[in-house]
Design a protein that fits this description.
The chain is an alpha/beta fold and about 230 residues long. It contains nine helices and eight strands.
Length: about 230
């Protein structure tokens, strides 16, 4: 029986998952887990070690790498074998390869094992691309965030610009469309909306409006849980 509340958030690249998850975690006091950062970390490791196209080596790395997450001051901190790689996993090079790495069945299986452990002892906010359908199919609340591709490209372009990454808006949009194609079309854990997920289009919403709608859903669930408890 699941005793802790798990809020699982899925959606395509730059739909606002990380921003919403962080705000919710802070507002509700829940543990925040960014599953996408874990796949980025494996991809970064593969690029650094020249194994990004070697499936057997990637699977071995996923099974043996010491991958840990921390969350402080609104930032998910990512460590590989004790070395912090938080900023190094957010590059165009990693973006270009992360979908290819994350579609490998055995890699996903290893990371899902780690992700599920977080839900054993914590109220949890977890976000990614298959958290509602594969990682936590019995999540207390499932949310599917989406947004127009041009708006998602604009958001990612601004992120890159802040970091000094020189890419045009057109290049970013092309990259996002490619990630959408790979994520939705892969054989293993494709990006898809769970039937019982609450879908929220964030194209024209502020982060505050998004959070308010989701918090209302959380309150509905909490009230139902209280009403089911024996008096």
């Amino acid at each position: 029986m699941q005793n802790f509340i798990i809020i699982a958030i899925d959606g395509p690249a730059a739909s606002g998952k990380s921003s919403v998850a962080k705000y919710l975690a802070d507002k509700l006091g829940y543990l925040y887990v960014d599953t996408g950062a874990m796949y980025r970390a494996i991809t970064y490791y593969a690029l650094e070690n020249g194994i990004v196209d070697d499936i057997d080596a990637l699977i071995k790395a996923a099974r043996n790498i010491n991958l840990t997450l921390g969350y402080e001051n609104g930032t998910t901190r990512v460590f590989i074998d004790g070395e912090e790689v938080t900023d190094k996993i957010r590059t165009p090079e990693v973006n270009a390869k992360v979908s290819d790495v994350s579609k490998i069945k055995e890699v996903r299986e290893e990371l899902v094992k780690i992700q599920r452990k977080f839900g054993h002892n914590n109220n949890l906010i977890v976000e990614g691309r298959d958290t509602t359908t594969v990682v936590f199919p019995n999540a207390t609340l499932k949310i599917f965030l989406t947004a127009d591709v041009k708006e998602r490209a604009r958001r990612r372009y601004l992120e890159f610009k802040e970091k000094g990454v020189d890419l045009s808006l057109e290049e970013v949009e092309k990259s996002i469309k490619n990630r959408d194609r790979i994520d939705s079309g892969r054989d293993v854990s494709p990006l898809t909306k769970a039937e019982d997920a609450f879908e929220l289009d964030t194209t024209d919403l502020t982060i505050e409006q998004e959070i308010n709608q989701i918090v209302e859903k959380v309150k509905e669930i909490s009230d139902k849980k209280l009403n089911k408890q024996p008096s």
